[in-house]
Fold these 2 entries.
Entry 1:
Amino acid sequence: MPPKGRSWVSKSEGARSGLDEEELPNRSAAAIDVKDVPRSSSKSSSKVVVVVVVVVVVVVVVVVVVVVVEVVVVVVVATAAAAAKVEVVVVILEVVVVVVEE
């Protein structure tokens, strides 16, 4: 609500209503009144957008890290399995060579 003696009539509204410019309230006082109006709805909506973006980024980063860790584990396990197979083949060949030599 406007303070006593002030009005929130804009210049264009005054022109539409037939008021002269002299009858309109002081423009600086009207600007002060507009600044006093709470704007929590726009601030809270921007905060919600920021929170949603942060949550999405965190989820994407976690998913990427999990996928990279899984790939590294698979590669390490596959490499170890391949190395183990090679060692088994080498041991078998050594046994065959020893048996053949005797």
Entry 2:
Amino acid sequence: SIIRAAVYIQASLRQFLVEDAVQILEIRPPVPSPPVAVAVFFARRLQQPLSGWALEEEAMGVAAVICGRDRGLTLGPISKAYDVYSVKLPPGHPVPEMLRERFREVAVEAEEELLNRLQDIEIPSQGYACFREFCQEWGAPEKPIDGKPILERASAVISGLKPAMEEKLSQSLETCQTMAGF
């Protein structure tokens, strides 16, 4: 998605630069619209796979964009980039290492946000629903890229809701007066 955005921006800029010529000369130069430029770029790329040096350059560019973002970064793009480049680049390449480090940093931020969301939740089923929604929203992978578990504290908070809910339920059962109340 980062490459698509870069190609789209380049095509938009080319189209913007050509607009003056269109107005002055009243001719339409052969500059495709940005969506068409993106489609052509990816069609060419699918026909000709990247060579080794181009792949390394692309990986470094993608890692620089991902690692340079301060806000709005979720776990999904990092794990997808890692999945793509960790198998294609030689062992010991710095890009997978950079992506693993950034994944850990973002995982800490994600867990803090999830813990904030779980503060007002009292029922375990609501906690699990919030957890699933959060994982989908943040693109949290089933298996972390570095093998270390993520969102452990949040899982512990949700598990901690069970005994409190069981105790609350037991207390309410003691006050039931009829069979229908059970």
